[in-house]
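queue> holo job accepted (NAP)
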Amino acid sequence: MFRKELFRKVTIVGVGLIGASIGMAMRKKNLAKEIVGVARKDATLEAAKEQGAIHSGTKNIKDALKDAELIILAAPVNAIIEAIPVVNAHGKRGAIVTDVGSTKALIVDQAQKNLHPSFLFVGSHPIAGSEKSGPQAGSADLFVNTTCVMTPTEKTNRLAKEKVKHFWTQLGAHVKFMPPAEHDEVFACISHLPHVMAYSLAKSIPEQYLSYTTQSLRDTTRIAGSDPKMWNDICVSNTKNILKALDEYAKVLGSIRKAIVDADQQGLTDTFTQAKAIRERLEKS
Ligand code: NAP
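queue> job finished
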């Protein structure tokens, strides 16, 4: 069993699906005396309060950071990067700082360059969530039995690593460690590429055919319902790896196209059979 850590004040910057879920989970487990949320819109802060994710909310990040013992950056990736120098200037030295951004190398690099070493920073990526966004989609149980990838580096303070691991464990997640660059390479293939594909597939459907929508189109484009700004930020912060994954994908698509042009039924069947086996392995994992 883990010792319960009670924070006097926690600040969550960005109280959408992930940030609000963290607040709800912390309140459910009674892990904080006070949780302050930061967002740009009053409506978001109101909704986060109604969900029970935060005790109070503000649009002023500087005020929110004052005296926080735990600071969680849960806005889109570019906003996380912009918040780092603000945390450095207005956060309490010694505070634990983590983020939940879907890309890690750029965020970790910026945090290591811009945060005073007394801040206990380590990057995180909870593998939980969906195409939904906003605090209304939040859940206190979102992280239960999920994986949270933490991305410490050789510069990471040992205490930061331990405390943030403890934090995610208390929320029900199983923590895995990965270097930031490896994280971005892996997630470009298993998460970022599928989102880019879903957006491109949805965009390619001629308007006049949409009334005939099939279940297969719904299944394959579900994640194109994700927030466009969030995915813009992910694409521009993991460019190299996403381009590599897209190029590999284009090769497979090209070979399927060629097999169709050549009426190569054996080639097509072989490719689809291999792909089906991979899909079946995903179901089991
Ligand atoms: P979301 O539901 O769209 O929420 C984003 C939140 O950030 C909103 O509260 C928004 O406030 C706030 N925000 C945006 N710009 C801001 C700024 N400049 N300053 C302060 N707050 C700002 O997004 P989400 O799904 O929770 O994703 C949040 C982060 O988690 C992203 O970095 C994403 O990559 C990562 N992540 C997402 C998932 C997922 O499945 N969704 C999974 C793992 C990690 P307003 O509403 O007032 O604009």
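queue> The CA atoms of residues 21 and 33 lie 17 Å apart.
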